[in-house]
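sorry for the late reply, my laptop died twice this morning and i had to redo everyting from scratch. anyway the thing you sent over, i finally got around to it. pasting the sequence first so we're on the same page, its 203 residues, then the predicted structure underneath. double check i copied it right bc i was rushing
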Amino acid sequence: MHKLYSLKKAKKILIATNNLGKFKELKEILPKKIKYFKPRDFNLKEPIENGKTFKANAKIKSLFAAKKTGIICISDDSGLEVDSLNKRPGIFSARWAGPSKDFNIAIKKIYNLLKKKNKLNSKARFVCAISIAFPDGKSFEYQGKVEGNISFPAKGKKGFGYDPIFVANGDSKTFAEISKKKKNKTSHRFKAFSKVKKFFKFS
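ok and here's the structure:
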């Protein structure tokens, strides 16, 4: 039997992110009966994310937290790939927001770079890798994507990160304008999680 089926009996899980928006989205997607912890609950510092892919960085975070705390851990590494910027910022999406994690800075940077190229409506995608790690050192990674376009000016206040400038294919509103319920059914995070949903018990 796949080790992930043990998640059906899990009573507590650490969601290894200090990003409140990510924490809330993952918690809303996951089963309600499980007790969820944040890294700060264990005074955990963030590990150095030196992976070259979303999956690699998600794995670094989940394994670090699972080994340090002794409980099952779920981590998320996600970002925005802008085609006209050679898929940047990609895995550096959070770093473009600077030490203060001010995504207004990152959005302005994307605007300036695309404006120079006269490609403000570049194709883009959100990518999310989810890693589930166990204290024994085993981990499993899954990835989801949602295709769309960059849209300026930034619109909406419901999302976080780059949500105000991203419009998914088939929609006319940014991720920051649509409802939380709709985003949780269409986002890259949901698509990544849908690949592991069967391993959890929701009733």
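The two ends are 21 Å apart (CA to CA).
thats about all i looked at so far, will dig more tmrw
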